[in-house]
């Protein structure tokens, strides 16, 4: 029997567990997560109004309910209060780290740390009820918001700022975030990219959703669009980019009017400074850019200030080091060879990576399948050697001996029931529990983990 620990219960962790138990009937997998809730960014990163994507949880659930897969939540790995990596390696024949990319990239410009300036990751965590999130009054007294970035996450946060209470009420958004967004006085949302529309990273499906909002109109400046050499004749663009340009063309030709809110899509503007007003962010200074002929842009020395009491940067995720695990600070990933962790250039026996911590924050949810498959192939090729080392028969008892009390599948199901009951009491559907105390209390109502 081969006992494997998978660290992280998001898509990459679940697909790794699935590959292991499907390909080897002698493998038993424990999926460990710092949170008492599974599914990673599918639970805490997918926008609450994207029910179809969130339904992927049902597929991940089937993996975690496999007879040879066990979910163990509330287990911190590394750090001053967590289980050391070295001890983890003593409890399992192999460990696969699927810890994702837990932080965000910075702009590196003056004023970025002003109150009112946040990462999109922090904002998403707040309205997704992540227990680490803080409620800093994101939209309080905000009239104009700037979202820096033109990827799908930027579209998501823009859409959340533009939705009304009636649209948000059916979601599983926590009650405090729902109330704050419902009372929001935001009227202008600027989503800004430093390059042109043909280079934007959002998908056409996400982009079109902005035009379908009942209380928000989309405004696009045709003069900015025309700065893109491909805008005049998009025929040579890849299909996805061509569709994006066609959507933007339609909005430029017939701007929506008479709506409560306006979404302004801006291009060829590079943020250079966040400007303070009364000690917090009050505007963003942008430099106009133009194409440099090589796929990038160059500054023109012309500037424009855009009023904003809230600034959300959405310029990419980044992996963070896990204590005891090698880390490449330049790429934000763990060095590896076909999923095998490298320590000082040599393969580390029994240690593997999958997902964003392996390849960087690229691709969509489905990209994690082939990534996990490569790692699983490497691990199972090593299995004859790995299985020869003795490990504890009862890993839960070993974890408890280390002072760790895991939240098992029954604990997670108890959290689900508590969220359904909370929603019913509020006249809504399922409503997420937003903090550590409520999650722990709900999980404690279940039978002990075995």
Give average pLDDT, whole number.
94
- Number of discrete helical segments: 17
Specify the helix fraction band.
25-40%
State the secondary-structure class: alpha/beta
Oligomer: single chain
> Sheet with the most strands?
7 strands, mixed
Give, in spatial order, the strands making up the sheet with the most strands: 3-2-1-4-18-17-16
Please provide the count of β strands.
Answer: 18
Tell me the strand percentage band. 15-25%
The residue ranges in which pLDDT falls below 50 over 5 or more consecutive positions are: none
Structural shape: globular
Secondary structure: elements and pairs:
Layout (H helix, E strand, L loop, with lengths): L1 E6 L3 H13 L3 E6 L8 H4 L6 H4 L1 H9 L4 E4 L12 H7 L2 E4 L5 E2 L12 E3 H8 L16 E5 L3 H11 L2 H4 L6 H8 L5 E5 L11 H8 L4 E5 L1 H4 L13 H15 L7 E6 L2 E9 L2 E12 L5 E11 L2 E4 L3 E2 L17 E2 L2 E4 L2 E8 L2 H4 L8 H19 L8 H7 L7 H17 L10 H9 L6
Parallel strand pairs: 1-2, 1-4, 2-3, 4-18, 6-14, 7-8, 7-14, 8-10, 9-10
Antiparallel strand pairs: 5-15, 11-12, 12-13, 16-17, 17-18
Describe the structure.
With 450 residues, the protein is α/β, with parallel strands linked by helices. 34% of the residues lie in helices and 22% in strands. The chain contains 17 helices and 18 strands. It has helices at 11-23, 41-44, 51-54, 56-64, 85-91, 120-127, 152-162, 165-168, 175-182, 204-211, 222-225, 239-253, 356-359, 368-386, 395-401, 409-425, 436-444, and strands spanning 2-7, 27-32, 69-72, 94-97, 103-104, 117-119, 144-148, 188-192, 216-220, 261-266, 269-277, 280-291, 297-307, 310-313, 317-318, 336-337, 340-343, 346-353. A seven-stranded mixed sheet has the order 3-2-1-4-18-17-16, with helices on one face. Strands 6-14-7-8-10-9 form a six-stranded parallel sheet. The chain has a three-stranded antiparallel sheet with strand order 11-12-13, with no helix packed on it. A hairpin with a 2-residue loop joins strand 11 and strand 12 (280-291). Helix 7 packs parallel to helix 10 and helix 16 (409-425) crosses helix 17. It is globular and about 70 Å long. The model has no long low-confidence stretch (mean pLDDT 94).
